[in-house]
Structures
1.
Amino acid sequence: MSITVEVRDNLEKAIKVLKRKMQSEGMQRELKHRRFYEKPSVKKKRKQREASRRRRKSRRRFSR
């Protein structure tokens, strides 16, 4: 998985675009989790919480 951003004139604008792309891909969250070691049991619980949050979000979206 690679994210590419072309820098044409403005470096600050390219950095903003890169940050936006990273956020939409969920990469910042992933980097935050990988910064420190996470025990397998904690990792499993976090994944379950995230999955339940995604399910609730999709149910809210379809119920409207």
2.
Amino acid sequence: MYRIVIGLIAGVGLLVVGALNLSDTAVKCGSKVMQPGEVCTSTRKGITTDRTYEQQQSYNHRIGVFSVGGGLVVTVVCGAVLVATVRRRRENSRPMVSPSGQQ
């Protein structure tokens, strides 16, 4: 059950990160704030990528949308699994009561 709770926390975390990313008006290249006309250069796994200010702005927005969407999916799925697990445990822990007069 702790894995479900960790998934729930991760989903909410993704939602928060995505919302913060979407609400940030500054265009950032890593942690550096970009100005129009600048180019963002990043290297990942030996591949260098250059993005203009407008491309980086679109990329940052897309990352925010995916984070919010992914966080929403993870939160809903983990929440549903958690509710189902708690209900199942409650049902299994109830004492069996036989109808009165029968043995």
3.
Amino acid sequence: MADEYAMMETGAPFNMAIATLMSLRNTLDKIRDIEGRIDFTPEERQRIKIELVKRFYVDSAPLIENEKILKEFDYVLDLYPKTVIAVNSTNQKTRKKIVYDFELNKKLDVSLLKIQLELQKLKYYMPPKQDMGSSGMRMS
């Protein structure tokens, strides 16, 4: 019990902003890794990337805080893989099929870029000069 009070007096035991930045870095790494997976179909890679970009947006929201800026990126939550209706030529049955969409991939990349630029404007990506060495160690 006394230890809890001691921690409360000296400050938070961990920095939520740093934990969030590490999570965002992890999400970006996963996106990079998924895009390089040639054992997945392009459609599957894009489907996973969509979900990771959504996660990046949601996780970055507490750092951005500004509701006006966040509203600009709400469209990210409405992104879904492109589907077409495929017709089986043998039995004429139809089914929905996910297809890779180059424009959707560009939209995902531009969204990631813009969200990262907003985080940079808020100085989350560059640590203060006195903390540069230790921050780099935590982020790697």
